[in-house]
Amino acid sequence: MKNFETIFGLPAQVSAQAPGRVNLMGEHTDYNQGFVLPTILPLKTIVQIGVDNSVGGKIDIFSANYQQRIERSLHKGGSNHWSEYIVACLQQLQQYQIIIPSLKILVESNVPIGAGVASSAALEIAFLKAVRKLLQLNLTDLEIASLAQKAESEGVGMPCGIMDQMVTSLGRENQALFLDTKDLSFEYVKLPTNYDFAVIHSGKTHVLAKSAYKQRRQECEKAAALMNVSSLRDVCLPELNFLDKLPHTLRQRVVHVVTENQRVLDSVAAIEENRLADLGELMNASHLSQKNQFEVTIKETDLLCKAAIERGAIGARQTGGGFGGAIVALVPRHAVQSWWNFVCRDCPQASFICTSQKPQKALLRRVR
After folding, report:
1. Tens digit of each residue's pLDDT (9 = 90 or more) over 283-305
2. Which DSSP string do the residues of 17-49 spell out, in sequence order?
3. Is 164 annotated in the active site?
4. Which of 102, 160, 217, 331 has its C-alpha lying 20 to 30 A from 150's C-alpha?
5. Out of 30, 60, 164, 196, which one is annotated catalytic?
């Protein structure tokens, strides 16, 4: 940890942290009010905060990762800068008539940026939990997640669903969060003890705000409107046989979302019943659907999934919003080391991030 007082000349008053996450199943379903199955990772973002009463209306932020210090006003936005996530969170709090003092903020993280493991949500949740502690706000973890999602969608301009913020705020170690994003009901699913979910960066960083992510969401909304439903969550599997009136592209998007929702339900059952071979097949099917129906994979993630399976994973899929980032592979725990030794030879541009259980520092090759 960086020394807060050395940087700012005053002591930190509070600290909070939040983890990264990997989505095991349910890609592009959350903004369609569907089901998702993420779990937290042994990676975290830590935020320390102190109050500086000598200045008014300013926030002073230092990023240990970027080695960058920036002063921001809460009345300004749209800078397309990493600090915008913090400004947007504070602007959300101001909408509830919460008075924000002048803050000194130190951010430090080992959640890789642009890897599809929720680095932005980890920052938002860690920061909001630190502010909650500092100002003694009566906010639940679920309310924190909702504020963070609104900050990213409305303040930053990234129309994300709420999955990342929910699992980053409410997730538990060694358990997946089975979440219904329509009503935010959830339950915890214990992960298998003899297999690990290995998270591997493809070597291609994604920037969702600059990708076709927004276009995919718009396509889903257009398809729902043409089908006269409030969201694609309301479309069931048998109805996929009657999509001829939709344009081809929209039909493909609907097929992915509806079948992906079913794969989440089937994955929960497979984990609970220890049918891990079935879970692996579901992961493989999810990747193919993201590739062929939703068109969000890239050649690097396709090749990485192929190598992962050929080298012994029982399932692999792109995770996160797509257009780069990471894959997640289901690997026998005892074989993770040898498996990765072969995969990294096949895909030398790839980097080992962590498993769902631990960072596995001996395997780690840092994301470039």
Report:
1. 999 999 999 999 999 999 999 99
2. EEEEEEEEE-TT-GGGT-EEEEEEEEEEEEEEE
3. yes
4. 102
5. 164
